[in-house]
Every structure is written in C-alpha cells, then in structure tokens.
Amino acid sequence: MSEVWALVAVGSLAAVAVLLGDRLRRRRAEAQAVLKGVRSVISGDPDAAIEALSDAARLGTAQAVETYLALGQLFRRTGDLSRALRLHRNMLLGPGLPAVRRPEVERELAEDYRRSGMLAEAAEIYGRLAPGDPRAAEGLRDVRVDAGDLEGAIAAQRALVPEGDDPVLAHLYAARARDVLAGDARRAVALAEEGLGAFARSADAALALAEAEAAGGDADAAAGALGRALDADPAAAVLAWPPLAALPGPVALRFLEARLATRPGDAALHLLHGRALHRGGDTPAALAALRRALESDRTGEVTLAMRELLRQAEAPGPGELAARHDLLVAALLRRTPSLRCARCGAAALVRSFRCARCGAFDPFS
Known about the structure:
This protein is 70% helix and 1% strand. It is built from 18 helices and 2 strands. The protein has a two-stranded antiparallel sheet.
C-alpha cells in the first residue's frame, strides 16, 4: 500500500512540476514577446510591436491584461482606433477580466471613443467613473473641451484642482477668452485675467490677455501682456503673432525691436519681426529678418513655423519672387526634427498649447 501512495505522490509531484514548468515557459515567452514589442516601439517599428504584443496576449497568463492594455494603447498611438475599440470592448465582454481591472479597461474604451469623435459615448463612461477616478475626471474635462463646452471643462478642472497653481485651468480660461473675443472684448479681458489668476506664469493666458486688450483698443496694455507672455515662456514667441498683429504697426515694431535688443539671437523674435515688417510694406527688410530667423534657429522649430507660413502666404509679387523662392528653398533644405507630443508621440507642424491628437496640455514643453 505504501508503494501505491509513493507512486501517487511521485505522479502528483511530476504533474505539479509539469504545470509549473509550463507556467514558467509561458511567462518567459510572454516576457520575451513583451520585450520584443518594447524594442520595436523604441526602434520605430509599430507593426512589429503590435505583432509581438499580440503574441504575448494570446498566451493567456495572469499578466495578459497588462499586455492587452499596452496593445490597445499602441493601437491608439498608431491611429488604429477601430482595433483599439474592438480590443477594449472584447476585454469587457470576456469572462477572464478581473472585476478590479474593469474600470481601467472602461476608461481606455472611453479614450478610444473620445479620439474617434464619439464624444457622447466617451462622456457617458467618463461621467460614470469620474467620482472615484481622477484620470476619468480628466478625460471628462477633455471631452467637454472637444465638444466646445469650455465652461463645463473649467468646472471639471476646478473640481480636480480646487486650490493652488493650475496651468491647465489657465489654458481653459485662455481658450474661453478667445472664444468670446469677437463679441465681447471686455469679457475676454476678464477671462484671460482669471487664467492668470489660476497660474500667473501662463504664457497662454497672457497671450489671450494681449489679444483681448488689443481688441479693446488698449495697445499699451496689450504690449505689456505680450511681454509678460514672452518673459514667462520665450518659446511661446512662435505663437505670439495673433496679439502682435492686433497691435498698431508702429507699436508692434517698437515692441519687437526692444525685445531683440536684449535677445538678439532669438530666432522666433526675428520671425515675428519679419512678419511685422512685411505687414508694414517693407518687403526687403522683412525678408532679411526672416533670413536671420533661419540662421539663428537652433532647435528647428522656427524653421518648421516658417515653412508653414510660406506655404500659406499669398503669391509673391514679381519684385519679391526670387527672394521668397530663395528663402523657401533654404527653409526646406534645413534638416529639422519633428515636434512630437510628449504623451502620445503625435507629430505637429507647429507648436501649440494642446496636442491636437490626444488633448494633452503643454505637449511640446
């Protein structure tokens, strides 16, 4: 009898060893597939990364949920929103999803909906999750921004950050100020000042204030707000043309010449100077200033902005055709890195305060 029990024990141990070995092999295979996926992302081969992560997820280990979530985010990053939606829906319908992970998957699905423009569906999920989930509350705020409900977005952000400095709230007030600018310049001034109250160093809110003050006819106040914006963030100069263009020509030129006296190597200021000179009709001086902007550009960002500016510009007159052509060729021949969002990796032609793809604020800082 003891021999029988010994055989049973040996058989049980062998079975356990086989199960443990199989589990170890599956974990090792998943780890290798995930590592391969990570390497593919780093090397810029998203298709290979998707294939590797798909292989890892099919192994069905306890870590498969993490792998599926990484795969869904990669689908979104590459713009394959239909596959991201399908994956997250299938995860929610499948029997193997732990209840504790369900809200996380629902939040990912809501983000898929938002990026796809299905704002009502995204708002329903985010609204249900928001009371106990700050990331869902941020998603609900972003849905409201995308839907044009800036007042609702401001209320949502105030609930997220009830006190202290809040750069995001400053951006929202700046957007709201621009939203009302055409119809009520005084209201726009008040909203922009609210933005600076939320975050005193907000270049976006200061630029919005400059636009509003210029629209209201106070050129000195507008120039002061513009200077405040560039003091807070010199890189915001590439976004400063709208308030600068709203100033009277001589005021704008005096402002830029004073700034260039202290920052002669600032490529973005030379770009603005060139635009201001061109607006005033001094084409030769404008082209010379734009050439200096190219020569001073150390990051490539001003070159990208100039390419976009020249692409959108009206056809040049006969007298400036050759010089404009030379400038365009010089801008195109310069090798420049793309601007990319720090959160989603999306490329952009010009700097902005919010990523057009994922909605992140200050994505290029």
